[in-house]
Amino acid sequence: MSKSFPEEVLEHVFSFITSDSDRNAVSLVCKSWYEIERWCRKRVFVGNCYAVSPRILTRRFPEVRSVEIKGKPHFADFNLVPEGWGGCVYPWISAMAGAYPWLEEIRLKRMVVSDEALELISTSFCNFKVFVLSSCEGFSTDGLASIAANCRKLRELDLRESEVDDLSGHWLSHFPDTWTSLVSLNIACLGSEVSFSALERLVARSPNLRTLRLNRAVSLEKLHNLLCRAPQLVEFGTGAYSSELRPDVFSNLAGGFSGCKQLKGLSGFWDVVPAYLPAIYLTCSGLTSLNLSYATIQSPDLVKLVSQCRNLQRLWVLDYIEDFGLDALAASCKDLQELRVFPSDPYVVDPNVSLTERGLVAVSEGCPKLQSVLYFCRQMSNAALVAIARNRPNLVCFRLCIIEPRAPDYLTLEPLDAGFGAIVEHCKELRRLSLSGLLTDRVFEYIGTRGRKLEMLSIAFAGDSDLGLHHVLSGCESLRKLEIRDCPFGDKALLANAAKLETMRSLWMSSCSVSFGACKLLGQKLPRLNVEVIDERGSPDSRPESCPVEKLYIYRTVAGPRVDMPPFVWTIDEDAALRTLLSLRKIEVSLDIHERM
Amino acid sequence: FMEQDYEGMATEVSSYSNEAELELGLGLSIGGGGGGLLKAKGSPWGEYGKIMTAKDFPSGFCGTKRAADYGGDGPPDVGYSASPGVSQVVGWPPLRTYRMNSLANQAKVLNDEEEKRVGGNDECNGALKENMDNESNKNDTIKDNGQLGFVKVNIDGMPIGRKVDLNAHACYETLARTLEEMFCRPSTTINSNRSGGQEKGKATQTSKLLDGSSEFVLTYEDREGDWMLVGDVPWGMFLSTVRRLRIMKTSEANGLAPSFRERNDRHKSKPI
């Protein structure tokens, strides 16, 4: 049957199948489909760089044009993963340099990228077009200079929130004058000033430029120079949005913005001087995305701005917006899909602004399309969570961070189990959930049984016992990523649900109560998992086996144990685990004898 | 073995009640001892099978200090102001480094009335005002080094460094205490006198790292690349010039600027 279609026909059919999971499914149908599929797969996503090796990738898929790879676990964003942990991209670049000379796109997230890697990229891929470095680190502006100098076909360079060793802004000048293919440039994370004239010339010779995100060092007075040269811009990020109040600066700026008739997204806005905000008013009605999360302006100014953005779909903002501002948002922005509210002063216990659970409830009531929420606040109640859940059953991502760990319902002083329970019960499409506040094991029972589509769960300072973790691991059919910190979860639940770990991408546990002995058992029992203990106190063998490990990262892999582990990461080698097994068996035997007597 | 465990667990789960402490059998029925191995209290197995939780360890032992600090025996009192404060928990609230630096630097400039600061105990108030006065200095620094808030910290003897958020502190004392906690373990000798968390929160106690009584001293590299002892200059000035920190063995720190303690001693012996 499988020979009834010539390969070319199947290949043509497969070319319409772009989603990774569909492609994976296709490859499992039969051997010939596997072969045809692997030869024509153009795009690969590696969710965990240690789950598979570069060699396995390049051998299976010889014709890849686009690669996306993720490295460190998510909690690395919050300094929970020590420096030097891993996630180096160089071995991947090195393998792909040989195997994929026609590679066009590289997208990396939380990886360590050296200048050597950048240089290798710049000289290995003559068709290199798209380079996205999201939350990466390890490289300097020298490495960027190689990219600029050598990648003649580059269209997209996006340094999203990466940590760059910023030696100077000179690298931008390495883009040759003949290079005119720029479509997207994001340098917002860079500290030092780039040559403005080089930037100006670059923008002027890039007719396809759609996205330009500047860094803080670009001053307000100069923005209009760029905007006038790029009226086709769709996404724009300002630099520092402040200047002395001068009418000529204002009118230039307003003119620049009003010339960009296709503008849909704005960001940047560091150091905002409110008097300059009206310069963007004319763009507001077209905006679908607005990132004001660095804009330290007060609620009235925010309200004036936001209430003009009738088509807004995504808003990132500081808690200066306050409940009052969120009311206005709910009234004006009926297309809102994503809301993120960040804390302006996260380290004080007492609130510095009047932002409470009421703001979020208002938005959940007023915005029927709301599906993604990230909300930092200082008080929450079960009643509010229940209301949110009932208002917005279409929520897909709900991340709530009540700033004080273990904060109870501020009205009843009870745990927030019922509130989060309502969220998972009503929001049947929920894929991502982050918990906070005072929570007992009961909330995990709700999550385990009702969170059927939940793929990613983040837990901190919650639960009473292993039962909590057991509920999650024995339920949550779709769970892929679980990250836990500072919870009283230990060995029992992990060992009882060990098989579950092979169905997930990864599990992170830090400051919990998982013993080294249990880690060894897991490592021995499940060879397709890498069980890695991160402990900066020295070898876990130097402590009793019952002593909890500091941090634990378990992930499924076909590549075997890592070869690049730093000194503070221990993997479980088979011999050690076997010895544990034998010593436990001796105890079993002696117990039997004891009981019989 | 896992299927058997699961069955054993399931029956016990169904009989779980809120009040009773769940006695889950560890069920390590290795090699197929039927039905899982149930713990008998008081048996030799019980010793090995006990799952240690943070509560079993006095705070300071075996690194689960953070969880122990927060107790976990029930909801904290509302308005529990004696808590260590959110800033001393690593990675909480969950905000990216870049965002924290950015916010901290801007918020202080615009909120003139905002006097509240992290770790703002009395000893910091003098430094606090200085901190605010030095805002303009700091903003200039930010343009050069957008990542000011978090700086790297290394300690002699440990190859792996950490990062500390300078913006979460208003004076040397809290910074030093945070660093002591970060790097202190029972096995090292920095805090050999420390016992079970007694010293936590004591505002009046000088950090050993600053007063010269420990075998380590706290030093920093400034913008010119010179290594200086921490504590010599006003806090605000320190913030505007520090590049990174190093906890150095006292024996190696000779030749650096006069120590904090030496200066204090000199003050003390000054005749009235």
TrEMBL record, chain A:
It comes from Escallonia rubra. Its main location: nucleus. Transmembrane segments: none annotated. Keywords: Auxin signaling pathway, Developmental protein, Nucleus, Ubl conjugation pathway. This is F-box domain-containing protein. It is found in: Nucleus. InterPro entries: COI1_F-box, F-box-like_dom_sf, F-box_dom, Leu-rich_rpt_Cys-con_subtyp, LRR_dom_sf, Transp_inhibit. GO terms for biological process: auxin-activated signaling pathway; pollen maturation; SCF-dependent proteasomal ubiquitin-dependent protein catabolic process. It comes from the Eukaryota. Residues 5-46 form the F-box domain.
Automatic annotation (TrEMBL), chain B:
Keywords: Auxin signaling pathway, Nucleus, Repressor, Transcription, Transcription regulation. Coiled coil: none annotated. Residues 130-141 have a biased composition (Basic and acidic residues). It comes from the Eukaryota. InterPro entries: AUX/IAA_dom, AUX_IAA, PB1-like. It is found in: Nucleus. GO terms for cellular component: nucleus. SUPFAM superfamilies: CAD & PB1 domains. PANTHER family: AUXIN-RESPONSIVE PROTEIN IAA11, AUXIN-RESPONSIVE PROTEIN IAA17. Belongs to the Aux/IAA family. Homodimers and heterodimers. This is Auxin-responsive protein.
